[in-house]
Every structure is written in C-alpha cells, then in structure tokens.
Write a structure and sequence with these properties.
The protein is an alpha+beta fold and 561 residues long. It contains 21 helices and seven strands. Strands 1-2-5-4-3-6-7 form a seven-stranded antiparallel beta sheet, with helices on one face. Strand 6 (534-544) and strand 7 form a beta hairpin. Helix 6 (93-101) packs parallel to helix 10, helix 10 (144-165) runs antiparallel to helix 11 (169-183) and helix 12 packs antiparallel against helix 13 (206-224). The chain is globular, with a radius of gyration of 26 Å. 40% of the residues are buried.
C-alpha cells in the first residue's frame, strides 16, 4: 500500500483522479437530463415567478418568496429561479438542475478547506468525489426543484456550520445569517440550529450559545407563522409506539443506504448491507462524538472537530426524522432515491473523520487512503452500471409524459379532471405565453401525429399479459420482435374514440439474482388516474434509433371507468 499511497500523493495523479468522478458525473448529467418540469416544479418555479413579478410591492413579493410549497418553505430555490430569470429572461429546468447539483461542489470545497485547515494533505480527499458524484442520487439529479431543495439544504447547513466552526465574532454573525436562510429553504433546515448549538457547546462559547438558542426560537416561530399546511406527522409518533423496532431498523438502513448497491434487487435483499453498515457507522461516530464533546484535556477546540461534529448532528437528526415520519409509508422509503444524498454525504464525512482520527505515525493515514479509495471507485462505477438503464428508462418516460401533457393535459404530475392537472396545464400555458419556456415538440418522433389517425392495418394478436391492479394498467410482453439488444424505444399506445395516450415500454429484467439480465419483450405500467374514462385499444409505437417508426394495433382492450 505504501507504493500506491506515494503514487496517489503525486499532484498530477491526484488531480487526474480527482477529476474522474466529476467528469463522469457531468457526462451522465448532460446525457440523461432533460429540460422538462415535473410535479412540484410548477408551483415553486413558474407559478412563483409569475406571482413574484406581477405583485406590486416588496411586501407581497416577500410573501411569494416565503409561501410554503407543501410542508416546506423554499426560499433558496426561489431566489435561484428569480436570479436565473434576471440573467436570461427565461426558465430552463435543466440549468436549474445543474445549479442544484453544483451544491455538492460547494460541499466538496468545504471538505477540502477543512483538510487544509487541519494541515492534512489534499490527496486524502480522493475517495470523497467518488462518494458524492455518482448515479445513486439520480432521482434528485434530474429534478429541478428537488436539487434546489435536498442538495442545496446540505450545502447551506454546512456553510453555516463552517463559519460557526471558525470560532470568531465576525464568522458567528455570518453563520447566523446563513442559518436564517437555511431555515426558510426547507423544513429540515431548522436542524441547523441544533447542529450549531452542539458546535458552540463543544467550543464552550456560552454567551454565543445563549444568543444562538434565542435566535433559534425566533427563526422557528417565524417559519411556522401563518403556516397553512400540516402533513399529519403526528401519525409518525403513533406508528413509533406500534412499530418501534421497524423504525430503529429503518434508521440504521437509512444511515447506511449508500451501500444499497443494486436498486433492481428486492427490498429485503437491498436492506442487508445498509443495515449492517448503518450499525457500524453509528457506533464509530457515536464514540468519536462523545470523545470530542466531553474531552478531558485542555486541548483547545479545533475547526475540524467543530465542523464535522455540526455536520454529523444535522445528518443524524435528519436520519432520525426520516425514519420516524416516513417508515409508515413503507420501509422502501429508507432507501428511497430522493433521500440518498444525505447518506452519500454521511459516508464521506465518516471517512474523513476516520482518517483524521488515525495516528500519523508510521504513515498509517497514507496507507488507509487507497483502502477506502478502491471501494469508493468500485461503488461509483457500479452505480453507473445499474443506474444508466434506469436513467434511459426515465428519459424515455419523459418523452411519453410530454406527449400526454401536450394532447391530454396529464403526464407531468397531474391526473385526469383534477385541480393539480388543471394547475399544471395553466402553468405550461403561462410559460409559453410569457416566452419563458415551451415543452419540446415533437417528443416521440417527427411523425407522432400519425397516432391520431384512425386504427388501420393488420390487427395483431399478441400474447401479452394485461393486468389491472393497484390503480395501474400493466402490460408484460415477451415478444421476440423486441430482443434484449433492440436498438430503439417501444411505447405502449392506448387509443379510444376521443383520446390517445402513450407510455414507455421498458426492457424486461425478470431476474432477481442477476439485475443486468434482459429478456425479449417489454413491460409497461401506467396509472389509470391519468386516463379519461373510456374503452382503449392497446398498441405499440416502435421508434428505432435508425429507421422509420411503426405503429401496430392489437386486439386487446382495457376499460377505464
């Protein structure tokens, strides 16, 4: 390991290795992201911007900035939207996604600065970009508002704690300002005050701690002032009383969910590695935190300990809240992609604390870096192996959703004849009329208008398994016409007298043991709530990568009441 360590310590090699995960993630992002809004994007991006620009006074504009989106106030996200509009006069959801994902670059920079402040070599950071920039987090990666919430809140909390860890009056004031911004940028941003209080306790800054707690009370009061939305989180406490062990297990699985390596596996299999890793991580971090907080020597507080202690408090408290309030929606929430960012950051901090706490004697630290680097590289690579097929499916799903939104006013989050569906349609028209944004057209193929022509040609009689359960219409085809290496995309068609819908057909991956195995055919499952009542004939639209599209209708029908 000493030879490997000395090689990694060379600036050129360390620099090139550092860039590998960043470049790989950039390619992944720009290849599989789409300038398309989804669900919550509409309220906090076009709807907010229209209200903000049209309201006459700054008091009303401030209300628009602070108006809750579901259970969260999203001040930072809306400031970014406004700032992007001031620069470009448009809305670009892909650009907003990029800005949100760039939050992790700031987090990485804070880790780098912490290493330098501690006098540790910069190349010790090498495993961290592989832990932060990979395909595990793609549910957030490709959604504008989510990146500006979930990823940005980690950045904002860490910025505030970093300033607080400097243990200086001027940085204390900046930490307070950042803490207020953090509080109003997402519900769990309030945890910055708990994290900061622990940092000040560690520093034995009693006067600042008193002021911090007073401002915490003010910030939380203001956050809930005029707060119109409650999500029934009290039910989480009732669930805790009845399912205590499940919530504790969920907590450990959430902590270690970075080790959810194969998302295609059944949930029971996926949870094993995270559960074990979570127990190990919590045990190590608890011992380290206790030693730091209740130190018996007269050693002065360090920026390294203060910063990472505060970050840990935020992440562990956040994990506890998620386990408490989200386990009741299904244990799968503990490995849910929108929360994965917290686990990715937590494993990064755990590594840095472990390296920093090792003795420098005998080059022990240097020998440990490659021990962590190689698994980090392997897991990052594995995330792309399993994540790229999911990203391809989601990109094709976007194409179908855009088509359905264009022609049926459902697809991008709304359901048939619903207030949300009408709200989304209104905002799509709003963006088009004001010249901010327009949905891509065509979304499926240049000749997608053929889908509106009457049914014609030979009616095929496929051996499909068509089922309706749980509010979904599902089709499972094992047609040899669509081999595993089929070069193109298959879309399921649902055609009635008045409406034509499409939904993406995903490759069949039936193997539980080998998630990379693909068999002939396709699978498609769409929510019935999207569809207008009626009888629908099923068909397929074949869009090859190279060649003309083909439409085939079948003798199979489904009825939506």
């Amino acid at each position: 390991m000493e030879k490997v360590s000395s090689l990694l310590a060379r600036p050129v090699i360390a620099g090139l290795l550092f860039l590998v995960p960043l470049l790989a993630f950039a390619v992944f992002f720009f290849r599989y992201s789409a300038n398309v809004p989804w669900f919550d994007d509409f309220e906090s991006i076009p709807y907010f911007l229209q209200r903000f620009l049209d309201l006459p006074g700054w008091r009303d504009k401030a209300e628009a900035l602070l108006r809750p989106n579901n259970e969260h106030r999203v001040l930072y996200a809306r400031l970014v939207v406004w700032g992007y509009y001031l620069l470009t006069g448009t809305i670009n959801f892909k650009a907003l996604m990029f800005i949100g994902n760039a939050s992790f670059l700031v987090v990485l920079a804070l880790f780098y600065q912490s290493l330098r402040r501690a006098g540790l070599p910069a190349w010790y950071l090498l495993p961290v970009p592989f832990l932060l920039f990979n395909a595990q987090n793609q549910l957030l990666t490709f959604t504008a508002l989510f990146t500006l919430q979930y990823l940005a809140i980690i950045m904002l909390v860490f910025l505030s704690i970093y300033q607080l860890a400097k243990n200086a009056p001027s940085s204390f004031g900046l930490a307070i300002l950042l803490a207020f911004l953090t509080t109003f940028s997402m519900g769990n941003g309030m945890l910055v005050w708990a994290a900061g209080a622990v940092v000040l306790f560690y520093q034995r800054q009693w006067l600042r701690l008193g002021g911090w707690l007073g401002l915490m009370a003010l910030a939380i009061y203001l956050y809930f002032y005029g707060y119109p939305v409650q999500q029934g989180n009290q039910e989480g406490f009732a669930f805790l009383a009845e399912h205590f062990l499940q919530i504790i297990s969920g907590f450990f699985v959430f902590i270690g969910s970075f080790f959810d390596l194969v998302p295609q596996w059944p949930l029971a299999w996926r949870s094993i590695f995270p559960f074990v890793a979570g127990i190990v991580m919590v045990g190590f971090l608890a011992v380290w935190s206790f030693q730091v907080l209740f130190r018996t020597t007269n050693q002065p507080p360090t920026h390294w300990n203060a910063f990472f202690l505060g970050c840990l408090v935020f992440l562990i408290c956040n994990a506890g809240i998620v386990a408490l309030f989200r386990t009741r929606f299904g244990f799968g929430m503990m490995v849910w992609g929108s929360y994965r960012a917290y686990a990715m950051v937590l494993i990064s901090i755990t590594y840095l604390i472990f390296i920093g706490s090792r003795s420098a004697a005998g080059n022990r630290r240097e020998r440990l870096v490659p021990v962590f680097l190689l698994p980090a590289m392997a897991i990052a690579g594995l995330s792309y192996v399993f994540g790229i097929p999911i990203a391809v499916d989601n990109l094709n799903m976007n194409r179908a959703k855009i088509f359905d939104q264009h022609y049926n006013q459902t697809g991008l989050g709304g359901t048939y004849n619903s207030k949300l569906g009408d709200f989304i349609a209104m905002n799509i028209d709003l963006m088009k009329n004001r010249g901010w944004y327009e949905l891509p057209r065509p979304s499926l193929s240049e000749d997608e208008q053929r889908l509106f022509e009457p049914v014609s040609g030979t009616i095929i009689k496929p051996d499909w398994a068509v089922s309706e359960a749980g509010g979904f219409i599902s089709v499972d085809s094992q047609d040899a016409a669509y081999p595993p290496n089929y070069a193109g995309t298959v879309f399921l068609i649902l055609k009635s007298k008045n409406r034509t819908y499409v939904w993406t057909g995903q490759k069949r991956r039936p193997s539980r043991r080998n998630p990379l195995a693909v068999t002939a055919g396709f699978r498609s499952s769409l929510p019935k709530s999207m569809l207008q009542p009626g009888q629908y004939r099923l068909g397929v639209l074949e869009v090859p990568d190279d060649g003309p599209t083909t439409i085939r209708y079948t003798d199979r029908f489904v009825t939506v009441q």
